[in-house]
Amino acid sequence: MRQLYILRHAQAASPQGVDDKHRPLTRQGLADARALGQLMDRMEFKPDYILCSPARRTRQTLAKIQETLGPDTPVGYASGLYFATTGQLYDHIKRVDSKYRNIMLVSHNPSVHGLARFLTGLGPPDLLMLLELDYRECTMAALDCPIDSWASLLPAQCDLKNLLIPGKDFRGEIVD
């Protein structure tokens, strides 16, 4: 069994004159990402490899999560994760080395939502319904994948174990 954590970056600002790739997180986004890292730690969701889009908002999201989980997990910043389609995200995951059992993907919507839906075949009905409805910023799906290697990952094969949603499961406090 392998675990896959699919995370949409936290809430981003849209400052005038800043291109999309360099948009920063809002104060709430920073707080939510930190709170998600703390919740992941309590739930023992520990990736041993992370795939992350090179966009500023995904890097900032990951940095806040790593404040709790620690900075030692190897991270692959792939330019192909920025503006990737669901299929391209799927291909990136399938290329992850089999030595990694628990991986996290930090990227963008609508592709991360599409990927979570594409890979999920089983799960509690209430979580499956929530997954269909929304994948707001800083939402993370935790999937159990019954595979021996990432290369053998197939659609609708994973079990949705948890869907962590800001404002429902966690909310970061803004610290001045």
Automatic annotation (TrEMBL):
Pfam families assigned: His_Phos_1
From the record, give the transmembrane residue ranges: none
Name used for this protein in its record: Phosphoglycerate mutase family protein
Organism annotation: Micavibrio aeruginosavorus (strain ARL-13)
